[in-house]
Structures are given as C-alpha cells and as structure tokens.
Amino acid sequence: MTIEHDKDLTHLTTFKVPATASLYAEYENEKQLLALSRTPEFIENEVLHIGAGSNLLFMDSFKGLVLHSGIKGISEYCKDEENVFVIAGAGVIWTDLVEWCIAHDIAGLENMAGIPGEVGASAVQNVGAYGAEAGDFIHTVECFDTDTRTTVVLKNEECHFGYRDSIFKHEGKGKYIVLRVSFHLRRGSDARNLTYEPLQKYAERIGHTPTLRELADEVVRLRAGKLPDPALIGSAGSFFKNPVIHRYFYEEEIETRGLDLSPRSISKWQMKLSAAQLIDRAGLKGFSIGGAEVWPSQPLVIANIGGASAKNVADVADHVVRTVRDMFGISLVPEVNYIDQTIKITILGSGTSKGVPEMGCTCETCRSDDPRDKRLRASILVETHGLRLLIDASPDLRQQALRHDLHSIDAVLLTHQHYDHVGGIDDLRPFCADRNMPIYANAETASDLRKRLDYCFREHRYPGVPGLDLHEIGSQPFRIDGLKIIPVNVMHGKLPVLGYRIGDFAYLTDVKTIPESEKEKLTGLDVLIINCLRIEKEHFAHLILHEALALIEEIMPRRCFLTHASHKMGRYVETATLLPEHVKLAFDNQTIIIK
Length: 595
What we know:
It is a single chain. This protein is of the alpha/beta class and 595 residues long. It folds into 4 domains: 4-69, Uridine Diphospho-n-acetylenolpyruvylglucosamine Reductase, domain 2, CATH 3.30.43; 74-226, Uridine Diphospho-n-acetylenolpyruvylglucosamine Reductase, domain 3; 234-339, Uridine Diphospho-n-acetylenolpyruvylglucosamine Reductase, domain 1; 343-594, Metallo-beta-lactamase, Chain A. 22% of the residues lie in helices and 29% in strands. It is built from 15 helices and 35 strands. The strands form 8 sheets. The chain has a 7-stranded mixed beta sheet with strand order 27-26-25-24-23-22-35. The protein has a 7-stranded mixed beta sheet with strand order 28-29-30-31-32-33-34, with helices on one face. Helix 11 (419-422) links the parallel strand 25 and strand 26. The mean pLDDT is 94.
C-alpha cells in the first residue's frame, strides 16, 4: 500500500472527464485502511472515497486524499434450502457479483445486470433498475467508522434506504467507508421479478418464465438499446433522479395548467414523475454544449461524446434543470455527485434588523443611489460540494430568493432565534415540495421555533405548510451529506449564538465577544464574514468598527467582509476609505469565491 501523489483520475471515473487528485491510495483489507486512517495525509486532508467512479463528476483537481477499496472476494452462507446470504467485498465489480450469483443459481440481483460500479457503491447509492433496488436485498453493510476507527455492521433498516438514497449519502457520508455488503437472496434458476413492463412482455414473447440467465441477458439488451456503450462513450448512466413531489403540488400546480405527466402514486401524499419524460417533452434530446450531450435515445443520460470538460457537463445539466423548471415548475435533482471543493458565497442580505434604508430616515446613507447601500436583512447562501446551504432565513428571504432565482436549498443553518434571522422560514415552502427541510440550530433556537412555528411540526399539517426537520447542534462538528461544518459559539451580548466554519470560510453575525477557546476554530481562514453595526458609539450586543477590526487583526483571515451593517455604517464609498486593504464592507448580491 502506497500513497501516490498527483494521481490522474480520468480513467477511474465513467465520465472520462480529466481530473487529478493530490493524493491517492488503494487498500486491500481493513488493516491497511486502519493504517491509512492514522497517516498525516488522512488526518490533515479532505478524504474522498470512490468506487468505480460511475456517479462522480470532478469539477476540478481534488485537493485531498482519494481512497479506493481493493477488498475483493465473494462468499455465500446458506441459511436453508431456500435462503442464501452472499457476502461481497466493496471493491468487487457489481456486474461480476451479478454474474457470480447467476452461475451459482442464486436469484435476486439479475434485474440489475449491467449496472456499472462496484459493490460498495451499490449500498451507498441504492442502485436499481427494471423493478429492483439493491436495498431490497441488502441484509447488512460492514463499514469502517472513520470517527472511532472501528468496524461496525449496519442492518438494512439502519441504512435508511430510499430511492437512490441511503444513510451513506447523508449523515454517514465521510463517516462510514463500506467494507463488505451482505445480500439476502434465494436459491433458484428462474427469475421471479417481472413487474417491469418490458420484462413482462419478454416473458410473454418467449412463452415461459425466464431463467436468471435469460432475464439478465434481456436486461443488458434493453440497457444497450438506450444507454451509450461505456467502453466507448463516457457517462454516469442516469444523471437525474425521477422527481418525487407532493400530491397537493401536482394537483394545484401541474393539473391546473392542463399538463398530464402520468404520475405514479407511491404513498398517500407522494407521487413520482419520469425525469426522462420531462426532459423529452422539453425538447432537450440531443442538446449539447462542447463535448457533452443529452443522449438522444435516453434523455436521462448526459454523455461525454468527445473531449467534454466537467464544465460542459455541468452546463448541460443546468440547462436541462432550468428548461424543465420553466416548462413544468419541477426541479430535477442530479443523481451524480459533483466533486467541487470551490466555495461560492452569495451575500443575500448584509443589513441589520431594520435594513437599509430605514423606514422614515432621510440620512445620506438611506437616500444613497448606490446599490451597495441598499441592504436587506442579513443572510448568505453557501454553495460547495454540490450543496446549497442557507445561513439564516431573514424576513426578506422571499425577495432574496426571487432576486437570485434560488430554486433549491439543501439545508438551513441558523445562528440564533431573533426575528431578523428566522422570520423567513415560512417562505421555505417551495423548497419543501418533496421533503422536509433540514434545519440546524442550537437548543434555544430549536425550542423557540417549535413554539413560534408550531403548525410546521404537527402530525397532520395543513397542505403546503413547510415541513421542517430540526437538528439540535452544540459545539461539536457535524456533517451535512459529508460536508464538515464546525459550529463556533459566540456571544451576542448575553445571548449565546452560533457562527459556522466551512472549510476555509467562517460566518459570524451578531457577535459581541468570542471566547478564547472558540477563536482556535478560526485559525487559517481564507475568508471571514463578521458583523459590524456602525462606525462609532458602542453597542451592548454588536461589534462596532474598531472592535471588529481588532478581532480581525487577532484572527488574521486572508480576506474579511463586514456585514449586518446599519445606516450608521455610512455610505459604501466613504466607509471603504476607513478600512484596511484586506477588509471590505459586504454588500447585497456580492459573490465571494474561495478556490
């Protein structure tokens, strides 16, 4: 086992888009993985575990450690004449496992013949096709816990399998590395799962129940008729998930527009639509940018038809999402994981609780024509690692979202419970059409929201009310879909509030003091955004300019932006002359990029 430097990853992903990793290592067993987890390369870098790369799009070179499992081997354990458990190493090629089962007259996985990838990824992604999903058969998943450096075994129900979803894509991402997967299958040489219509027609055509071999061959033939040959053309298979929407949304927003999208009911309140149908009806088959194309025979696929860059692929995907949303009001969500360490921060609002201009005020700042002096209530959008995170939902959220064409949010981080930071939560309704919105807050804020927005937490909610999943957090780091978030506990006068560090970026608002122990969390920042209420006259709960500059000098970020500013902070052009070169006054609609 060696750690390679500047590893070319181009041929380790099915997209075949150029990419490199600063560090790369493959391990063959748990002992080697344990040793790797104790190296500086593992401890001091972001770690990304890949399988066959069939669901990854590297947007740039990966600055960190990429790991790959070399754990092989397939074995079986017979419980009785009917039931059999097949255990496969995470590094086993999925199609090899399917073929092994067919050769040994073990049924269950044949509907998923031809799916690219490895066994470990089958549990992560809950792969599926032609009426079957891996999660239907997975018994247990053996994992390496990176927090405790121990081996743990998760039962099926602990894996939270859903449509192309599992615990390994959310709270378990970055925490668990899959070592082996155990499948509960059955003895027999005949296929039984013919629920998918083309397979029913195939059985009728041949006049008998297909054998495992016959069904697998038919599935591979069907796939080949729709999907590009992976040996010749790069792709990730299906790029988008089939959207799951609330029945109320379909009836009120789709049917009333005279659209029939042939929904399939999956529960009392949820309906699933065909993403391929939506893309097809939007006229996007064959649409291309550079070397990336919506595959003509299966519009769920975006293919690298030759020389595509990651940006080409992402631009095609963005065009598909925008076009489908404009035509049908439905936002498609990628199955593909964008590997993008860039942090993009958008200042949605940079003002204090009254905003700027203040109502009824005639000061120079409030009468200014400079758009940088127009301040909505403070909040930001952070985009990184394929996630969109909203920090604080101000009362101006609706206006901010419309201004920035914000159509999806993955989670909300709250700093504290004051109205100018949570007053827009009810406006999250459009982002909760297919799931509850995860919201992270300290215990005080969570308690306040349960009282203030009690209608969002009732068992039987009024249709259209935002569904919220509250997560109470303290001082320990936590993960959102694998992204590490570090809470920073600061004081807003006598009120404890939270700031957040994400990579080399930190956001602190409504700060007056920072405990010494928390300042250690702020070392080595590229960008700090911190509050500054006004230039002069001390405030009991907010920093003023000289206090903010003193803290900035102590923390020493490479760049700093001042937010949560009142009209007494002065006009942008005049205040800029009072600031050091690396300190700027933030303004609404500003974009900050950290590479």
